[in-house]
């Protein structure tokens, strides 16, 4: 069964709240249990420095809290790759390699940077006032996080789609210059995962100071839920679930049947106090077992540290050899071996056929097979996703043989593409044999 690599990072800049849990951790943990998925989940502590400059204690505390949350929520660290970003020195090194192929114009268009500039302009400030290079370069660091582990799928909110597209752009540019090293990732938007509202009805977010911490005590949870903004309808008056923060929070922690029962209770004029009590019980029941595990974990930070160290070793067993491959690709090479194999090394590199992957204006994903002398051998059909194109390339590299049909080439009975003018199936097979060899 082909596996999909999924990657998610959570910035370690605050205390995890119900929105982080329902919007990111809970679906990520469910996905990690799929037989066809390989999951990479990390604590994005380099990212945290962008927003928390000058507050080291907050980053430290948040890293512990978020690590303990993942574990308390049931993440099986044997099954997944669970690590702290700053334990992988290959990530900042890859960030530099990518920085050198990322165009500044692309980064100028990043939403977060543009929003900061627009705000400055509106206030009559210098466009870049208060903008650090971390904010500007954040999409490149994020591209390194994703590309390092050849993730196919990155579950994100809609506001992050642009960053995944940037990662793809940067990867495609690198692949074009240095050969096919990176998988082009895709954003995965899960329509069933709602954005949770906070106490004031806006998106629950640290920035709005309207969060319900996931591991509040029962008493705190009750108090916070009591402060959720509602309208002034009296008990007995029908209430509208649409746009009600209370209803949306209830839904995120309930079965469809429970949600329908609450919808009926709204129509029947349930009192706000009663609805809040029902919400409290629903969330408290869901969180209580995790809360206990969380408290036990947070009391033993050295055990969490040890888990993260194990996770880093596991992640680096992928990152270290991959970065070595990339260093070679860009020309950061051992001089001793270059002198030994002078000429031969160059000729060998030049003598390899290559796959080149790209996206066309029709939105589909294509590849070409180019012979060692640079001539085009095969042009693929369009694939719906970069993953499908990549898997087809992988099949060819592993020795799967294309066959000739009336209107083109087939692989495993499915359309593969067409031979380039002047190319023969024998030449394609020869190139594939050399790649497999
Ligand atoms: P952040 O703390 O902003 O880095 O967010 C970490 C993860 O939690 C991201 O995947 C967000 O999409 C998710 N998240 C944050 N706030 C909410 C919310 N209010 N509702 C749903 N998901 C959220």
Automatic annotation (TrEMBL):
Catalytic activity: tRNA(Trp) + L-tryptophan + ATP = L-tryptophyl-tRNA(Trp) + AMP + diphosphate + H(+)
Known EC number: 6.1.1.2
Enzyme class: ligase
UniProt cross-references to Gene3D superfamilies, sorted A to Z: 2.30.29.80, HUPs (3.40.50.620), Tyrosyl-Transfer RNA Synthetase (1.10.240.10)
Pfam families membership: tRNA-synt_1b (PF00579)
Superkingdom of the source species: Bacteria
Compartmental location: Cytoplasm
GO cellular component: cytosol
Annotated motif 'KMSKS' region, positions: 203-207
Residue numbers binding L-tryptophan: 145
Coiled-coil regions listed: none
Short sequence motif 'HIGH' region: positions: 12-20
Residues that hold ATP according to the record: 11-13, 19-20, 157-159, 196, 203-207
Gene Ontology terms, MF aspect: ATP binding; tryptophan-tRNA ligase activity
Keyword terms, alphabetized: Aminoacyl-tRNA synthetase, ATP-binding, Cytoplasm, Ligase, Nucleotide-binding, Protein biosynthesis
PANTHER family recorded: TRYPTOPHAN--TRNA LIGASE, MITOCHONDRIAL
Family label: Belongs to the class-I aminoacyl-tRNA synthetase family.
Record NCBIfam families: PRK12284.1, trpS
Protein name as it appears in the record: Tryptophan--tRNA ligase
Biological classification of the source: Bacteria, Pseudomonadati, Pseudomonadota, Betaproteobacteria, Rhodocyclales
Name of the encoding gene: trpS
């Amino acid at each position: 069964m082909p596996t999909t690599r999924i990657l998610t990072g959570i910035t370690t800049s605050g205390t995890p709240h119900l929105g982080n849990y329902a919007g990111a951790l809970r679906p990520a943990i469910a996905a990690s249990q799929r037989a066809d998925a390989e999951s990479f989940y990390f604590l994005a502590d380099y990212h945290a420095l962008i927003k928390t400059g000058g507050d080291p204690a907050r980053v430290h505390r948040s890293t512990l809290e978020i690590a303990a949350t993942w574990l308390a929520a049931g993440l099986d660290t044997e099954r997944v790759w669970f690590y702290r970003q700053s334990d992988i020195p290959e990530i900042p090194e890859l960030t530099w390699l990518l920085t050198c192929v990322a165009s500044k114009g692309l980064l100028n268009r990043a939403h977060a940077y543009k929003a900061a500039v627009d705000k400055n302009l509106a206030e009559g400030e210098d466009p870049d006032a208060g903008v650090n290079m971390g904010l500007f370069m954040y999409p490149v660091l994020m591209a390194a996080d994703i590309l390092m582990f050849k993730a196919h799928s990155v579950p994100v909110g809609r506001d992050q789609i642009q960053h995944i597209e940037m990662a793809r752009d940067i990867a495609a540019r690198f692949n074009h210059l240095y050969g096919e090293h990176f998988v082009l990732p895709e954003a995965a938007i899960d329509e069933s995962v709602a954005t949770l509202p906070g106490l004031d009805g806006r998106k629950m977010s640290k920035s709005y100071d309207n969060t319900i911490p996931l591991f509040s005590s029962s008493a705190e949870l009750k108090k916070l839920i009591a402060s959720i903004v509602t309208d002034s309808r009296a008990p007995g008056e029908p209430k509208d679930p649409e746009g009600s923060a209370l209803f949306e929070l209830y839904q995120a922690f309930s079965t469809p049947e429970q949600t329908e029962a609450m919808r009926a209770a709204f129509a029947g004029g349930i009192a706000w106090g009663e609805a809040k009590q029902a919400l409290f019980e629903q969330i408290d029941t869901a969180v209580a077992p995790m809360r206990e595990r969380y408290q036990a974990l947070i009391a033993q930070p050295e055990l969490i540290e040890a888990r993260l160290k194990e996770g880093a070793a596991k992640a680096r067993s992928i990152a270290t050899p991959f970065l070595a491959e990339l260093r070679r690709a860009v020309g950061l090479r051992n001089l001793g071996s270059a002198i030994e194999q002078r000429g031969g090394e160059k000729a060998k590199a030049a003598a390899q056929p290559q796959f080149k992957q790209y996206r066309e204006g029709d939105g589909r994903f294509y590849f070409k097979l180019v012979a060692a002398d640079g001539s085009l051998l095969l042009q693929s059909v369009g694939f719906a996703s970069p993953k499908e194109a990549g898997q087809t390339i992988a099949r060819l590299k592993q020795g799967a043989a294309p066959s000739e049909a009336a209107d083109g080439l087939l692989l495993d009975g499915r359309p593969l593409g067409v031979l380039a003018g002047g190319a023969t199936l024998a030449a394609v097979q020869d190139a594939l044999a050399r790649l497999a060899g």
